[in-house]
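Task card 7
Instruction: Convert sequence to structure tokens.
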Amino acid sequence: MLRALALVLLLANGVYFAWAHGYLLPYGFGPAAQSEPQRLAQQVKPDAIRLLSAKEFQRIEDQVKAEQEHKECLQAGPFDATQAEGLRRALAEALPPEAWQVDEAPIAPRWIIYMGKYANADVLAKKRAEVAGMNLSVESLKNATLEPGFSLGAFASKAEADGALVRLAAKGLHTARVLQEQTAGMAYRLTLPAVNAALKPKLEGVQAALAGKSLHACH
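Output:
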């Protein structure tokens, strides 16, 4: 009895060995094939590992900190062509090239119905009050050379401005005149896309080239 049992166990072990090693696959018996190429692709390749020097590690660490640091976008302008040229020179000396850009945009001509120039601020205030009493809108001037004075409207063409002046004259306003406040040309604007704490002190080097224009948040 024991001999028969031992023979059965020996036979069973032989069958399992043959099954486990795929010897019975031609007969339709065997373990399922285990193949996961994606795991092989995820394995670390020792030959691709490179030790960083202390200098390289510091550079990467500084870069990560800089990317995480708070940054703001600042703009200034508009500038004319001469101002823009001087600004570019100052920027090139004070800031890295990727820290700034000066873009140009066309300027459309503009005509206004102009009131001025007045002798002083008191006369200007009196005229503003008179116009307000006629229920007319008063606008500030964009051209500082026309101060002290004000505008009663801006137009894209002289013909439009002349027509508006005729309508104002019909309401009793006879001291205004049509004036071209802005001629066609090109304007330039400075953009600093990513100003951080390290870059801000360097902006002192370009203040003189801003021609009195202040830096403000991008819009």
